[in-house]
Design brief:
The protein contains six helices and seven strands. The protein has 195 residues and is α/β, with parallel strands linked by helices.
Length: 195
């Protein structure tokens, strides 16, 4: 048993299909739980602090309902020049976000927090992505795919969106929503056996 009697279960404080797929790839049994937290933060809070704060808030919210479990919380923001980009509301907003990114480097900042009985670790992972100098026609065609829906930055790097990048520096799993190298290391620190 991977949890070796240390915890009642492993919980992922997220309903994100991408995060569930990434954690599921480890082969360790877990259950996904909606964290149901307020995601508002003080305006002007630095991006790295924001994702760490929200990842911990999510993990603690689920832990408070299952206090013998080990809980993983995560949060992610796309940052351009230190300012966060949210999820675009419509295709026009998606095109504007992509236009602001073209030919430039931005960051995807992902916070992860693991909370259990007498255990708390919070970490932040930063990936840097450079978008190609896309033409207006290329922007329009990518927006038409609909991949921007529900995605900060208006792209999905694990799908057709990978073709808009000139360079990607960082952990690909972190870019997809859950920095698995960090998650595995922290789970090991918490006593979870993957093999």
């Amino acid at each position: 048993m991977p949890l070796a009697g240390l915890y009642s279960e492993l919980l992922l404080a997220s309903t994100s299909p991408a995060r569930q797929a990434l954690l599921g790839s480890l082969g360790v049994p877990f259950r996904a739980v909606a964290p149901q937290v307020d995601e508002d933060v003080e305006p002007g809070t630095p991006v790295q602090h924001t994702v760490a704060l929200l990842a911990e808030r999510k993990a603690r919210a689920v832990f408070n309902r299952s206090s013998q479990a080990l809980v993983i919380g995560a949060d992610q923001l796309v940052s351009l020049d230190g300012r966060p980009l949210g999820k675009p509301a419509d295709a026009t907003a998606a095109r504007a976000q992509l236009a602001s990114l073209r030919g430039r480097t931005h960051e995807i900042v992902t916070g992860v927090c693991v909370v259990g009985p007498a255990f708390v670790v919070t970490e932040v992972d930063v990936a840097r992505l450079t978008v190609l100098p896309l033409s207006d026609d290329e922007l329009d065609r990518y927006v038409a795919t609909g991949e921007w829906q529900g995605c900060a930055g208006a792209y999905r790097v694990e799908a057709r969106g990978q073709a808009i990048f000139a360079r990607i520096d960082g952990d690909r799993t972190s870019i997809q929503g859950l920095p698995m190298q960090r998650v595995v290391r922290v789970l090991r620190e918490a006593g979870v056996r993957v093999f």
